[in-house]
């Protein structure tokens, strides 16, 4: 490895403890400056983040300690309700003592630095006022905000705004948003999607985590200390703006709520995004909601920020070269620091936004490596690894071939020639090794992994690389050499499988990192001899340690550990174990680290003398530090034991002693490990909670330091074998909290940090002087001038005690690392590293960012079909020859619009694919072949253009789907000869049909139509036409057919039965038969495809785990297919001809992923199969779903995201399925095995399995010989397996899941080895040594998994992760497993438990499962539960003052209901559900009262027949990814917040507030009162009806229906988009306040009443229809209407409509139809107006072509213009040289013919006197006689009525039809061919119009009259009503 040391810098005090007295000293709120004044708003369309002024924002959220100081100052009697009693329990962190008038408050030990929660919005602004007014006795009601009323809820609550002179305040949403998401790259509009400086989902993991990590999605199921994710900051350096607690902001939302942002530890990643705003009732208080504050910037911080001194991280070389990341004037920039030259920026790579970071540096400091922004993808800069030298500057290293162009360099060899890191390749992360000769070379991944690997460090010569990869077991540390490749190092025993290597010794033989042991996360030291050994933890904290660096000889280890003090840097050696580095520096080397807290040690030099890390300096700021110590003597390593969660923190000089933290029977305990003695617990300090952590160890391993819990609190300790663990006390004046972080080589000096009256201070301890403030030692004893310095912690000390490093706050008030060196005992030197201003984040040997794409995938290599006795060999049989061609092809798209294609069907031979794309006409069905490519199939004639292809015949000659015809949506059948032919619809319903499937020969088509009964499945043949198939009995009528067997005899789909939506299978003989549903969930299933013979059906159902793909046969019934790893939803869409292969999609943390299922391998990721098994390069592709598969299973089609980020159809062709086998072999009767022991390729011997008894225990490893060897190469992979041997053939056993079970005759011995794996044993078998329970159930102590008794016969379900014990001596089990007691039925009364009703027993709040047996046993539910069951008509009540939590809440079952009431009147009634809640069987949930709160973090399911009613309180389901409402929800009051709600039942709102991100489903959503906010409608075909109240929508509509009858509908998005949706308005108002932009795509608006107000209306293949046929008078005001395409329509038949701009489409014929009503248009262009009634008034046309037609309507032309304004020419039907006006003459009365009205005018150039009105130039007047009218001689028609007082110019006004250049004069005769007319100017009733007089009438014919004249000057608008007559066509 390159001998580097690392430290990490973060600005602001992370750990802040306050005295608990009411007279506490003023608190410090650390902030970061937010610059880039005048930046633009974001580009995500949210429009937030633009802030024109400078401000500072809190580095972290406000902590419990800070808020407790506020309470002590202002809440002695608390009349304003600033304290919530929930703060003292659950996730709270503040206790209250005393009585009203003398209340005192204190942060709860261990939770001081967690964010305060359970605060209302009003509490937060009162806290800001208090800060504004100087703290202490400062007023809470005035200052930054003026608060009136003197009560908890102010009288002016909704009108409170920030006062202009505010000094501290709650940030606005723009301020909060900018600090979180803006890229800090100047005054740009560039923003990240997440507040961790990333557009990729942060990893939900334990802190410290990587560079993109956060506390959300139950990462630890609790709050973390603020700033715990020290490497995941926003670009400005804030912590935790994503996750931990959601944060309130100042902005008023919807007039009722206040803004909320960032998500919490209970939410998924969705609320963390920039694009997801939230809001919250200002009176509500919640354990997942907190806040941070903002303030005016300090002048010094602004100046420093502008100078670019914003430090982010550092690394240090043996020559004291420091590299890292800081903020410069250009942006965030990598730097290189030396003591002589200071900090020098290294610039950035060209092409991207300015951002770079340095991660490592060569031994001589000449070569620096890291990552920076290079080129950009879709506007987002990406990272590229670089190598820097002073000569070449920063040179990018590119990325692995085929990668996504993202790479990071993490380590470099001593000479700088070898660089290691990570690059994305093929869509996943891959470790690389770079040299100048070979370039970047990928190192692959561990066997059976998913190519997610990171290289973190290398040996000095670059020959050994370490990091982590993914193996079959999980995330695993690796060691790589050129000879061995990547070799996994395993993990510590007992915990989850997860290990990471961070550093390696010079010889490559010692590796350190972090794993998971039985105790928790634990540092480890690995050698080839001892393997991975845990190093334990420092005492007193949660068990969590990580080894970050190791000395050249592997004897000294440094890192980070939790301790009683929080998190501390440790130093480990074998002699002393793990010690607090600060303790070492202070105690052994005499450094005064007063007020320094050494948070983490990130690296150590080759000689072990120099250590760097991160800490909190005396000023409370986080600062990097470097510690230089004398030559160490010796050091070692320790670990192992307990629950699999331990962490090694330090190692002795010689590597023989490791110390750290593990979990013992007593609790979390410090340990010391040696190879001879193993891991030995060191106990804990007396009197406190049992918790200790070893963070450092002396050189010889004899002295261990850390922290523990004593009676006083968290206390540093020093341990020796003679004295045991001895507390080191605390510095005076503060809360008792100290931690030892380091220890000198001989163990005599300990350094760390403690809390004094001044806050956190570094300490130095030795036996003679005890614990002293390090600053005091340096200043008082050694005379150093440290004025302005605050040494907040010491993080490390050298072996000789001469050098101490730590962190503090420098005189400028910023975090800065320091090193104190003791050259001679008489003098000290404190060296700050010059890293002032705001240091944020970098780290040495960085735990690389772990996206879900790279970390959560595991490649399934094989599946065992049985278990092999003793040492089992699993064999991978890999295809090597005779494989059919493998290919993957993107199908492209149709030209003309945006890039999009989607595949839905494939022919039997795979040569033809069908689907849909977008052409220039719109959405269009396509047919693809390899020869022709993608070809559009057009659409049905007459309707708007939209078609789609769903199914294709076996030979590809017939395609079926649906299009838009004149009648509406219509099923079609296509052939090359006939084109698209509509199939009609079922009789009686609204015209709407779809074709979804077709038989093999193309003769039978199936789908869905609209009959008189409703939607109905149909079967079509050419002879019989379309025939309805009916529906399943019992439910409302609705069915749909999706697929048909090859011969057309079997049809599958879904219907609506009495149970709900249900998959069906139809045959002519049996009719429609329901297939049921998967067990456990709400009832809902759908069949999507059927095998060729009709025997196998696939689709999806609703299981206990959620929506799940199924496979059905008559024999097996419906069987769930599971999910992809990490998945939570799956759907099957296609099945092979024989039914053996199923394809579809599964939703995982990565999004949608296509899967392939077969019986041998289960469900697998299709992309993994194609890339890993078949070697295809799918770099940049994401396969979202597989929709079809050929009969032979070789070709699969679907849709994915291509490398350009666009949706594209694809086809994948694979070899014959049988040619690729993944086989696991087990114990088989009479099976012959052979083995090759000497490796010569020949089998040496054989052995025969003698039946089910299994092989002898000493059987050799073998290779199985029953595979077809000619087709396969046999590769032997030895994997030890547990043993499963049934005692008899009657004892069948199913081994399912990851665990293997042992049921041998000597079962008692197996229990000791596999105690936790005992499952259910049936068949009458009685295991020895087990107590029987009933007939077939046995338990041994607490070794039995969850028991759920369903009846007296002791039927039982084995499920869950918890272990429960129910022996006959059950009281013993209860005492050991108090918190795990579940329900015991059958009248059994456990000793020591209080009975509740007949069958329920509880011990305090320890009940883990609520299962109410009958309605009489109603019970008040309060406490913490694992699972809550409310069943058998039982009722549970959460009442006043109750607080309950559960992971799962189940109301009712399929056979009986359960009932839950949450009610409050004067205090909180809170129920928190951390996972999912379901209601079934007619269950009810009632939420009443203002103080009732229900929060559900995951799925909500309300089955049909069940209901929720809410009249008050707050139901928070905003974190639930799915809210399935098949029952009923009645919202009459209170607030309901949800994310995605699928309504198949009914949701009716008559009051309160409803907030949802998305609505979908076929059920009804009705709003008749209250307020609702719905962002998106997606497949909400059941519709939302607005009948009162107010509804605000801010996103888009897709396949949805909206109707407004009363109330208000606001569309608040900037551009509201609607696709295939409808908006019907019969009353109320739409868009009145917001006047939004509305874009209709294949959608329609029907305005039959009410008021519509829009800014812009764009019609794409869409319809606007306004009428008054309901007797209403609709009214619409639209600023601009743009009509695109000939298939769009715009018609008015009543009411009033005002349009500023009515615009057609240049490229196609567009029109507007006026049948009635009053229409006013200011400007009209490029369209035909068909007017057959009503009034059309056109003020002016601003260019373009306007055609005006009519049928006895009035065209009023004019323009009300200002003086001097020039009007554009109105072109009527043509260009200027051939204008045309079409007039219909139906009689000689004015009401019977068309007329042009001129009522105002103005001249061209303004001013002067106008003598004439000039009409059109060379206008052609077309006259048609209609309705049989034949004129007679003398008939007159006033075709132009001139109401002005000026004549119409005759000279040059009109031209002869026979000679357009000859002007006509008054009195000329013009022959039209049908009649001759006399033209009279200045005629008519007004005396100045134009009149045609018939002078002769020949035989009827068309008449054309040429009218000529000058330009028309029209200025105004008037109208004359004409008799309305609708046009006929």
Automatic annotation (TrEMBL):
Record field: transmembrane: 1902-1919
Keywords: Membrane, Signal, Transmembrane, Transmembrane helix
Ice-binding protein C-terminal domain location: 295-319
Gene3D superfamilies on file: paralog of FGE (formylglycine-generating enzyme)
Keyword hit for Signal: yes
Pfam families linked: FGE-sulfatase, PEP-CTERM
InterPro entries for the chain: CTDL_fold, HAF_rpt, Ice-binding_C, Sulfatase_Mod_Factor_Kinase, SUMF_dom, SUMF_sf
Signal peptide annotation: 1-24
Record-annotated Sulfatase-modifying factor enzyme-like domain positions: 54-294
Cell membrane is among the record's keywords: no
Name the record gives this protein: PEP-CTERM sorting domain-containing protein
Species assigned in the record: Durusdinium trenchii
């Amino acid at each position: 490895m390159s001998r580097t040391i690392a430290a990490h810098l973060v600005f602001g005090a992370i750990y802040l403890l306050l005295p608990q007295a009411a007279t506490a000293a003023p608190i410090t709120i650390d902030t970061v400056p937010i610059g880039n004044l005048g930046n633009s708003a974001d580009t995500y369309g949210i429009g937030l983040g633009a802030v024109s002024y400078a401000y500072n924002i809190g580095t972290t959220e406000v902590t419990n300690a800070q808020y407790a100081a506020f309470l002590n100052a202002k809440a002695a009697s608390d009349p304003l309700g600033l304290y919530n009693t929930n703060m003292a329990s659950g996730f709270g962190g503040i206790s209250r003592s005393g009585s009203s008038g003398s209340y005192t408050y204190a942060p709860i030990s261990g939770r001081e630095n967690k964010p305060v929660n359970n605060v209302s919005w009003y509490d937060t602004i009162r806290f800001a006022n208090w800060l504004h007014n100087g703290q202490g006795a400062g007023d809470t009601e005035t200052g930054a905000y003026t608060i009136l009323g003197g009560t908890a809820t102010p009288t002016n609550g909704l009108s409170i705004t920030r006062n202009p002179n505010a000094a501290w305040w709650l940030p606005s949403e723009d301020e909060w948003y900018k600090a979180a998401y803006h890229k800090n790259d100047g005054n740009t509009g560039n923003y990240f999607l997440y507040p961790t400086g990333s557009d990729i989902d942060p990893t939900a993991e334990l802190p410290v985590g990587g560079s993109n990590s956060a506390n959300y999605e139950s990462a630890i199921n609790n709050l973390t200390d603020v700033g715990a994710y020290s490497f995941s900051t926003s670009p400005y350096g804030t912590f935790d703006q994503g996750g931990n607690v959601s944060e309130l902001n100042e902005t008023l939302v919807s007039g009722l709520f206040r803004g909320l942002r960032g998500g919490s530890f209970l939410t998924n990643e969705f609320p963390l995004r920039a694009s997801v705003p939230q809001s919250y009732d200002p009176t509500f208080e919640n354990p997942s909601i907190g806040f941070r504050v903002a303030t005016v910037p300090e002048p010094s911080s602004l100046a420093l920020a502008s100078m670019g001194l914003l430090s982010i991280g550092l690394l240090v070389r043996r020559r004291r070269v420091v590299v890292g990341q800081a903020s410069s004037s250009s942006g965030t920039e990598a730097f290189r620091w030396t003591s002589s030259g200071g900090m020098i920026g290294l610039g950035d790579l060209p092409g991207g936004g300015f951002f770079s970071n340095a991660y490592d540096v060569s031994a001589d400091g000449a070569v620096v490596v890291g990552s920076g922004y290079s080129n950009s993808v879709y506007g987002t800069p990406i990272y590229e690894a670089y190598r820097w030298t002073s000569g070449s500057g920063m040179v990018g290293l590119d990325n692995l071939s085929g990668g996504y162009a993202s790479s990071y360099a993490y380590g470099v060899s001593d000479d700088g020639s070898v660089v290691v890191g990570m690059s994305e390749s093929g869509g996943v992360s891959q470790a690389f090794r770079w040299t100048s000769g070979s370039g970047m070379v990928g190192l692959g991944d561990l066997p059976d992994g998913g190519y997610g690997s990171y290289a973190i460090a290398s040996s000095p010569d670059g020959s050994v690389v370490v990091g982590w990869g993914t193996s079959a077991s999980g995330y695993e540390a690796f060691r790589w050499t050129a000879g061995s490749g990547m070799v996994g190092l395993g993990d510590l025993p007992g915990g989850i499988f997860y290990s990471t290597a961070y550093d390696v010794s010079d010889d490559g033989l010692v590796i350190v990192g972090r794993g998971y042991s039985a105790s928790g996360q634990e540092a480890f030291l690995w050698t080839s001899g001892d393997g991975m050994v845990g190093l334990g933890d420092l005492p007193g904290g949660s068990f969590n340690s990580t080894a970050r660096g190791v000395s050249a000889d592997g004897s000294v280890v440094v890192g980070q550990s939790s301790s009683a003090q929080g998190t501390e840097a440790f130093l480990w050696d074998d002699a002393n174990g793990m010690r607090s580095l600060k303790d070492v520096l202070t105690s052994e080397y005499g450094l005064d680290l007063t007020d320094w807290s050494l948070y983490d040690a990130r690296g150590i030099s080759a000689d072990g003398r120099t250590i760097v890390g991160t800490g909190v300096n005396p000023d409370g700021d986080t600062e990097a530090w470097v510690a230089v110590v004398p030559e160490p003597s010796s050091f070692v390593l320790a670990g192992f034991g307990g629950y699999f969660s331990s962490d090694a923190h330090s190692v002795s000089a010689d590597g023989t002693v490791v110390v750290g933290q593990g979990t013992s029977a007593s609790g979390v305990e410090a340990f010391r490990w040696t190879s001879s003695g193993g891991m030995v617990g060191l106990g804990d300090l007396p009197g406190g909670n049992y918790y200790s952590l070893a963070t450092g160890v002396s050189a010889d391993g004899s002295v261990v330091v850390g922290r523990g819990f004593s009676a006083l609190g968290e206390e540093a300790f020093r341990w020796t074998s003679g004295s045991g663990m001895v507390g080191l006390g605390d510095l005076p004046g503060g809360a008792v909290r100290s931690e030892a972080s380091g220890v000198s080589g001989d163990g005599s000096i300990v350094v760390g940090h403690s809390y004094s009256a001044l806050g956190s201070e570094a300490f130095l301890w030795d036996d003679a002087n005890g614990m002293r403030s390090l600053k005091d030692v340096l200043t008082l004893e050694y005379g150093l001038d440290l004025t302005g310095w605050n040494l907040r912690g010491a993080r490390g000390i050298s072996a000789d005690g001469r050098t101490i490093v730590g962190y503090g706050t420098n005189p400028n008030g910023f975090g800065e690392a320091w090193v104190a060196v003791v050259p001679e005992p008489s003098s000290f030197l404190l060296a700050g590293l010059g890293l002032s201003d705001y240091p944020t984040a970098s780290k040495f040997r960085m735990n690389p960012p772990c996206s879900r794409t790279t970390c959560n995938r595991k490649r399934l290599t094989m599946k065992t079909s049985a278990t092999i006795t003793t040492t089992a060999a699993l064999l991978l049989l890999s295809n090597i020859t005779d494989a059919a061609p493998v290919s993957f092809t993107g199908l492209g798209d149709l030209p003309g619009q945006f890039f999009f294609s989607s595949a839905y069907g494939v022919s039997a031979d795979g040569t033809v694919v069908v689907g849909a794309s977008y052409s220039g006409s719109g959405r269009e069905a396509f047919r693809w072949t390899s020869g022709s490519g993608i070809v559009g199939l057009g659409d049905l004639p007459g309707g708007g253009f939209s078609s789609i292809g769903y199914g294709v015949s076996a030979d590809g000659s017939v395609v079926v789907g649906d299009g838009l015809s004149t009648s509406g949506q219509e099923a079609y059948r296509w052939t090359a000869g006939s084109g698209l032919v509509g199939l009609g619809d079922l009789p009686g319903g609204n015209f709407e049909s779809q074709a979804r499937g077709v038989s093999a020969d193309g003769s039978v088509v199936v789908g869905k139509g609209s009959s008189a009964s409703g939607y109905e499945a149909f079967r079509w043949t050419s002879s019989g036409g379309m025939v309805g198939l009916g529906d399943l009995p019992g439910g409302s009528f609705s069915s749909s057919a999706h697929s048909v067997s090859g011969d057309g005899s079997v049809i599958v789909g879904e219907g609506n039965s009495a149970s709900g939506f249900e998959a069906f299978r139809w045959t002519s003989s049996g009719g429609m038969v329901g297939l049921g549903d998967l067990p456990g969930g709400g009832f809902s299933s759908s069949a999507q495809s059927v095998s060729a013979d009709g025997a196998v059906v696939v689709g999806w159902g609703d299981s206990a785990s959620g929506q799940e793909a199924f496979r059905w046969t008559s024999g097996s019934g419906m069987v769930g297919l599971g999910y992809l790893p990490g998945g939570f939803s799956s759907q099957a869409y296609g099945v092979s001809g024989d039914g053996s292969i199923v394809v579809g999609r599964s939703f995982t943390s990565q999004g949608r992923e296509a899967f392939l299922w077969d019986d041998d391998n289960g469900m697998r990721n299709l992309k993994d199969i194609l890339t890993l098994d078949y070697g295809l390069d799918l770099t940049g592709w994401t396969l979202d779903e597989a929709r079809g598969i050929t009969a032979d299973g070789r070709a699969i089609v679907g849709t994915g995201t291509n490398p350009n980020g666009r949706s594209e159809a694809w086809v994948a062709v694979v070899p014959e399925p049988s040619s690729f086998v993944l086989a696991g072999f087990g114990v088989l009767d009479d099976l012959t095995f052979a083995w090759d022991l000497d490796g010569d390729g020949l089998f040496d011997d054989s052995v025969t399995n003698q039946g089910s008894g299994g092989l002898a225990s000493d059987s050799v490893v073998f290779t199985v010989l029953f595979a077809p060897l000619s087709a396969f190469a046999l590769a032997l992979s030895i994997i030890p397996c547990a043993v499963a041997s049934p005692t008899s053939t009657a004892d069948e056993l199913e081994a399912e899941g990851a665990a293997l079970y042992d049921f041998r005759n000597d079962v008692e011995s197996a229990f000791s080895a596999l105690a936790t794996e005992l499952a259910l044993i049936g068949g009458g078998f009685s295991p020895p040594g087990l107590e029987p329970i009933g007939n077939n159930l046995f338990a041994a102590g607490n070794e039995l998994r969850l028991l759920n008794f369903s009846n007296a016969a002791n039927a039982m379900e084995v499920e869950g992760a918890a272990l429960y014990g129910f022996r006959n001596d059950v009281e013993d089990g209860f005492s050991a497993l108090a918190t795990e007691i579940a329900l015991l039925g059958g009248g059994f009364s456990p000793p020591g438990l209080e009975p509740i009703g007949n069958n329920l027993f509880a011990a305090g709040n320890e009940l883990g499962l609520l299962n109410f047996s009958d309605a009489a046993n109603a019970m008040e539910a309060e406490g913490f539960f694992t699972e809550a069951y409310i069943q058998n008509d039982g009722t549970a009540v959460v009442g006043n003052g109750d607080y309950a939590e559960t992971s799962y809440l189940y109301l009712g079952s399929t056979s009986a209901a359960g009932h839950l009431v949450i009610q409050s009147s004067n205090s909180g009634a809170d129920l928190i559900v951390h996972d999912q809640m379901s209601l079934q069987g007619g269950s009810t949930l009632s939420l009443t009262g203002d103080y009732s709160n229900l929060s559900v973090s995951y799925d909500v399911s309300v089955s049909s027949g069940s209901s929720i009613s809410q009249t008050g309180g707050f139901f928070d389901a905003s974190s639930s990814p799915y809210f399935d409402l098949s029952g009923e929800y009645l919202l009459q009051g209170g607030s309901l917040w949800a994310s995605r709600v699928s309504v198949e039942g009914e949701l009716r709102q008559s009051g309160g507030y409803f907030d949802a991100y998305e609505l979908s489903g076929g059920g009804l959503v009705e709003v008749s009162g209250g307020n609702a906010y719905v962002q998106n409608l997606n497949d909400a075909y059941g519709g939302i009806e607005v009948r009162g109240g107010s509804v605000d929508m801010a996103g888009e509509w897709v396949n949805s229906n909206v109707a407004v009858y009363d109330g208000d509908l606001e569309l608040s998005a900037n551009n509201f988009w609607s696709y295939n949706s409808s908006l019907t308005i019969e009353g109320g108002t739409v868009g009145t306040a917001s006047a939004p932009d509305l874009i209709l795509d294949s959608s329609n608006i029907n305005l039959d009443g009410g008021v519509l107000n829009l800014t812009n209306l764009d019609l794409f293949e869409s319809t606007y229809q306004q009428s008054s046929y309901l007797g209403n008078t609709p009214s619409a005001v639209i600023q601009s209407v743009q009509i695109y395409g000939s298939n769009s329509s715009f018609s008015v038949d009543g009411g009033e409509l005002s349009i500023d701009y009515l615009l057609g489409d240049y490229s196609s014929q567009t029109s507007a139809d006026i049948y009635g009503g009053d229409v006013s248009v200011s400007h009209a262009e490029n369209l035909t107006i068909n007017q057959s009634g009503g009034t059309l008034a056109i003020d002016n046309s601003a260019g373009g072509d306007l055609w005006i037609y009519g049928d006895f309507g009035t065209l009023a032309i004019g323009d009300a213009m200002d003086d001097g304004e020039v009007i554009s020419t109105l072109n009527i039907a043509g260009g200027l040289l051939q204008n045309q006006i079409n007039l219909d003459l139906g009689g000689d009365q004015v009401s019977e013919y068309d007329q042009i009205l001129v009522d105002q005018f103005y001249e061209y150039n303004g001013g002067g006197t106008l003598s004439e009105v000039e009409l059109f130039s060379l206008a052609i007047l077309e006259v048609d006689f209609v309705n049989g009218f034949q004129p007679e001689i003398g008939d007159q028609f006033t075709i132009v009525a001139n109401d002005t007082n000026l004549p119409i110019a005759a000279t040059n006004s009109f031209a002869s039809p026979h000679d357009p250049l000859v002007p006509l004069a008054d009195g000329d005769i013009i022959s039209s061919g049908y009649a001759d007319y006399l033209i009279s100017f200045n005629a008519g009733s007004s005396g100045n119009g134009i009149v045609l007089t018939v002078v002769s009438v020949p035989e009827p014919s068309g008449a054309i009259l040429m009218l000529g004249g000058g330009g028309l000057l029209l200025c105004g608008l008037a109208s004359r009503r004409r008799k309305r007559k609708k046009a006929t066509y």
